[in-house]
Amino acid sequence: MSVNLDKAKLDYLREKYEVAIGLEVHAELSTKTKIFCSCTTEFGGSPNTHCCPICMGMPGTLPVLNKKVVEYGMKAGYATNCKILNFTKQDRKNYFYPDLPKGYQISQYDLPICREGYVEIDVQGRRKKIRITRIHIEEDAGKLVHDELTHRTIADYNRAGVPLIEIVTEPDLSSAEETIIFLEKLKSILQFIDVSDCKMQEGSLRADVNISIRPKGSKNLGTRTETKNLNSFKSISRAIEAEIMRQIMEVENGREIIQETRRWDDEKGVSYSMRSKEEEHDYRYFPEPDLPPVIFNEVWMERVKSSVPELPEARKKKYMKKYNLPEYDADILTSSRELSDFFEEAIGEKSRTADRKTEGRGESKTGKYENNIAEVATTVNVKAISNWIMGDLLRILKDRNIEISDVTFSPKYLAKLVTMIDKGVINANTGKKVFEKMFDSGKDPEIIVKEECLEIITDESYLLEIVKKVVEQNPKSVADYKNGKEKSFSFLMGQLMKETKGKADPQLARKYLIDVINTL
Amino acid sequence: MELYQYTIHELSRMIKLKEIGVYELTKYFLNRIKEKDSKIGAYITITEEEALKRAEEVQKGIDRGEFNSLLAGIPMALKDNICTMGIPTTCASRMLSNFVPPYNATVVEKLYQNGAVLLGKLNMDEFAMGSSTESSYFKITKNPVDPERVPGGSSGGSAAAVAAGEAVYALGSDTGGSIRQPASYCGVVGLKPTYGAVSRFGLVAYASSFDQIGPITKDVLDCAIVFNAIAGKDEFDATSSDFKHPDYAEELNNLYNRYCCENECIKSGILKGIKIGIPREFIDDGVDEDVRKAILKAAKIFESLGAECEEFSLPIMEYVIPTYYIIAFAEASSNLARYDGIKFGYRAEKFEDLMDFYKTTRSEGFGIEVKRRILLGTYVLSSGYYDAYYKKALKARTLISRDFNKAFEKYNVIMGPVTPDTAFKIGEKTDDPIKMYMGDIFTVPVNIVGLPAISIPCGKDRNNLPIGLQLIGKHFDEKTILKAAFLFEKVVLE
Fold first, then answer.
1. Nearest CA in chain B to A52
2. Does B209 contact A289 at a Cβ distance shorter than 8 Å?
3. What residue spans define the domains of chain B?
4. CATH domain B3-249 topology
5. Does residue A365 have a pLDDT over 60?
6. What is the chain B residue with the closest CA to A102?
7. Cβ–Cβ < 8 Å for B150, B425
């Protein structure tokens, strides 16, 4: 007997069951070099150009652990409330596949670097704790490219040896929606603490999903399946929905769920069984003899812990409470670590610390501007700065197709610009022009305004002179205005602004214009 | 005396005094290899062209005063599991018969910095798995002492080359006795350094937690000279140790000066304070009578130099063979997984799918002993067997280490034979792997615990075959065993 698939029926069935979802999330760490050799971790590059005999697993070569990988793994643990051991040990996970150079992956088995943490998410106004089982460090494998034309498979080992963390959660998630909220949260945390750029399209964030269902109210978890090959949040969400329904249908039709690994086909929107539990690899884990266990010094661990920045949620709260920003602003400003740091620096909340990005890709471009922060902090207009960042800054970044890290001027200069506008040194329109010029030259707005003579003209005799000139040159408009044609006044003001290249103080100009016309 | 009989320290002096040129010396050895090696079979690859070119360069360097090492200009050869840039490194396997590394092992770099001249690459058991060099894919190496017998293994080519005068010295590798046993069978000196004393980078791995590179030489002083050059921390090997070590050769020279002084009192007390323990298990019924006698005679010699010798019991010896083979095979099964035909080495020509590609490549590329060890190693790591075998072996390893370290609280040196018997006939043990494995009983505990041990000749048996004496030291205390071995050698020579 087949089950009728109309929506009401589906919803009814869906209601009958509870869902338990656990994740295995892989995030590539953004260290400059690979986990066991000094090859670059940069994405892309011609095939097999980012590798060496070590990451190619050539005979006689040996791995040496990159300390930064341990540090980044630890930071991820601290940021997700994990317990962290003061030592680490590597294990070998043995299996054959052409993208795996050594015939084993160096990973961690029984003693992961972090364990028993949690991440809190907000689901429909409710706070929910998602438990982290463990986080361990390991190496990535290479990539196989199947050439449809020649029917050949080509191996590219550029990615082999790129460091990963695998984050395993407890089956605490109960829907696709929750899963995506959790992943978004996790992604923003990892980006915020600067350990991974989490670009799904480049494969630097990947997730396998374990799903089981059970009748509502039942205490015991059902048999789970694992779904792989999920390349975007959208496909994760679709795959979860599909798998939940598949499992419900199986159970409704009196069949048992088989513990198995399934592969999601995003184009067709269905998953296929890859292998059953019996066919699972026996990975034959054993301690990696080429890498002795490492014991961490407490001082070093403390330093790593203190290098974990305030997380987005805490910052968001702070922006709303301390600076009275609307939630909308706070959300946007904390959408990335870079943007949030830029904002905090602009308002004088913090300076960009030198320790950031010392090992990361490229030099810190902004580390050099760190003077006079206190001075700025006392006088800045936080809401205006927020508006400038959300508006002009993001627009210019988009127009110029650049990242916030490409900005060459100090965030403090934005605060300065806002102050100049507030104090009437320049008008808002000039401010926009100056801001563009700051992106070009990286210069102090004060210097730009001086160099280009952009200050508002408030000099009485000079303004009067221009007003008189405009009135003399436009007798008809003056007459029209006197006859009650308001529009003519706007024209005269326009002429005046044109003469002063827009720099006339509008209030004063208006007053003088009226005065001069009235004396006629 | 012929040139091939000279040691490093003798030839070095001759080069320094310009009694002989490096090119001439190299040419001499290449000729000797041509003449002798068809009968011995020590070499897999002879690097004639490179050697002569290198000899000229080194001579120029010596003339300019760039080398102050005793190894400058001395022709040597390497076991073929030590990677040499641009020169085939086969591990005596079909699997790597076409493999040319694009890098040098750290030890090779170090020897080159000391002005060494490479003559070629030496035969061995396939992937260093064996005790007779019979499992080589290429050829059987004969023992220069008796060509009907094996040279031992797995560094059989290294020991045979030095014994036959086809190289002044050689490097071997020792995972369970692979330097000491062939040195013993061929009547030369071999040192297995403390685990971590010498970089393993560029040594094709067999069992990573046991493997160690070491010298095979004509005498103990040469051994110290080569060890000086290759020891030390390497940033490319996380298991290498940053240990302070003396100039071993200088230590021995100082000792020799004291020894040569005519004062009998000093001479007879030169090893005073040194306690040597002889485990009863090393000289029990399983040991050949001639071998036992030679060891007990050696004890007398040490006593005559002022050392205290004492027998003691080491019952843990019962477990060393299974412990060693379980762990070594487990590591080997994983270490050899990279030979899959994808990136380097042998590749099957005909195959149906990926699984068949792997199977055919590995079936055709590996020899029988290697396959046996991979299968057994895979088995002991498999789920359901891991706890019973591998995990238990790790526990036994801890216990063996504990008992040896305990013995070292009392003794400075543990002494015994290298092997229970002397060189056996070619083919004698090939059908009985267990018998072959049992022959490693006295060498494997040293690797299990990671200790240093030296093998030196200590007499001949009834068939006139060399017997090897093994001196085992504390971790990183190569100095003591080198000193004891050096003095023993001097007394025996007198």
1. B102
2. yes
3. 3-249
4. Amidase signature (AS) enzymes (3.90.1300)
5. no
6. B338
7. yes
